[in-house]
């Protein structure tokens, strides 16, 4: 039996409130995915730079991922994650799904952008001077997206948006 108030929910089984309400209070569900994409991008980019630096300086227990002797660059995982987010976006439109997809989108995009210089030059220039292009692009993405989010932050979640939770 379906509830008339919330299509897709079964009567007697209330949906748990979104965990993002505690983390990002007052941010509308429509905006939350963008904020989480920015957070995901920023933290993943920083995390990947730290991880690759640890690999580069040969910290014990930290190493490259390989399959059959071939190094798998992290942009591959980013592209796969972006494919999944794109497919999910074609199907799912709930506020909770948009938040998770925003976070996953930011993570996937950071994995790709972190190796943009490699994708442009088609050579592994991650630690070379040319590899700085990836850092420049990532900083530009973080700065522009953060500025847009900051400049457009005036809208709080309306009652209609909160009902969408």
Write a structural description.
The chain is mainly α and 165 residues long. Mean pLDDT is 85; it is low at 1-10. Strands 1-2 form a two-stranded antiparallel ribbon. Strand 1 (66-67) and strand 2 (70-71) form a beta hairpin. The protein is built from seven helices and two strands. Helix 2 packs parallel to helix 4 (95-113), helix 2 packs antiparallel against helix 6 (132-151) and helix 3 (74-91) packs antiparallel against helix 4. The two termini are 21 Å apart. The radius of gyration is 19 Å and the shape is globular.
Secondary structure elements and their pairing?
Layout: H1 20-23, H2 29-56, E1 66-67, E2 70-71, H3 74-91, H4 95-113, H5 116-121, H6 132-151, H7 159-163
Antiparallel strand pairs: 1-2
**Overall pLDDT metric:** 85
Helix fraction by DSSP (H/I, runs of at least 4): 55-70%
Tally of contiguous helical segments: 7
The tally of beta strands, per DSSP, is 2
Strand order of the largest sheet: 1-2
Instruction: Tell me the radius of gyration.
Output: 19 Å
Strand content: under 5%
Largest sheet: 2 strands, antiparallel
Helical/strand content category: mainly alpha
The span between the termini is: 21 Å
Helix-strand pattern, N to C?
HHEEHHHHH
Mass-distribution shape: globular
Give the low-pLDDT segments: 1-10
């Amino acid at each position: 039996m379906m509830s008339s108030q919330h299509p897709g929910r079964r009567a007697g089984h209330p949906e748990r409130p979104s965990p993002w309400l505690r983390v990002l209070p007052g941010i509308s569900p429509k905006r939350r995915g963008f904020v989480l994409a920015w957070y995901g991008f920023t933290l993943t980019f920083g995390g990947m730079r730290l991880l690759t630096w640890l690999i580069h300086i040969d910290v014990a227990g930290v190493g490259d991922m390989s399959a059959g002797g071939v190094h798998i660059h992290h942009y591959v995982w980013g592209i796969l994650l972006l494919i999944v987010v794109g497919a999910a976006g074609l199907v799912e439109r709930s506020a909770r799904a948009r938040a998770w997809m925003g976070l996953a989108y930011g993570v996937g995009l950071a994995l790709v952008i972190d190796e943009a210089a490699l994708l442009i030059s088609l050579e592994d220039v991650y630690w070379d001077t040319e590899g700085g292009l990836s850092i420049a692009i990532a900083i530009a993405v973080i700065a522009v997206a953060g500025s847009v989010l900051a400049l457009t932050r005036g809208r709080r979640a309306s009652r209609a948006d909160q009902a969408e939770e």
